[in-house]
Write a structure and sequence with these properties.
- There is one protein chain.
- By secondary structure, the protein is an alpha+beta fold.
- The protein has one domain: 3-Layer(aba) Sandwich (Aminopeptidase), CATH 3.40.630.30.
- The protein is built from 4 helices and 7 strands.
- A 7-stranded mixed sheet has the order 1-2-3-4-5-7-6, sandwiched between helices.
- A hairpin with a 2-residue loop joins strand 3 and strand 4 (70-78).
- This is Acetyltransferase (GNAT) family protein.
């Protein structure tokens, strides 16, 4: 059975998944990994979702406030053994629901252009490509997306 739990960045299962995420991103990003990693610290993340299958943590995601109306989706990951089964979509929907419950009206996120499966997930979920924002503004390997809730 699959379940989703709302928690914080202190959750040990979330932290284990983030280790796997960082290993995955280090390979995917190559030389650019150090640049991206500096924006993925957990100290400012209070809203975390962990997806479990039979009590095994298989996926995660988080958000943090971007501005008074918007959250930034962060740390999305699904264990490779569980990909292609709707886990990422379920995690993303739960994050969006939670953000809406906290009176946010939109979500933004950044992913690498070298991660087309992630971009496809976000596009299928209603996100639109936007100009790169903030620290990603002039980064050619970044893709930024936004969704109105």
């Amino acid at each position: 059975m699959t379940s989703i739990q709302r928690t914080t960045a202190e959750n040990k299962d979330f932290r284990k998944l983030v280790v796997l995420l960082d290993e995955f991103l280090a390979k995917l990003d190559g030389e650019d990994h150090a640049f991206y990693a500096q924006f993925d610290k957990l100290d400012k993340i209070n809203n975390v979702v962990v997806c479990y299958h039979d009590d095994i943590a298989i996926g995660c995601g988080a958000f943090k406030e971007f501005d008074t109306d918007t959250v930034e989706i962060k740390r999305m990951f699904v264990h490779p053994d569980f990909r292609g089964k709707g886990t990422a979509s379920a995690v993303l929907k739960e994050l969006e629901l939670w953000a809406g419950e906290n009176n946010y009206s939109s979500c933004v996120l950044e992913t690498g252009i070298n991660n087309p499966k992630a971009i496809a997930l976000y596009r299928r979920s209603g996100y639109e490509i936007i100009p790169n924002y903030g620290q990603y503004e002039n980064v050619e390997t970044s893709a930024c997306l936004k969704k109105q809730l």
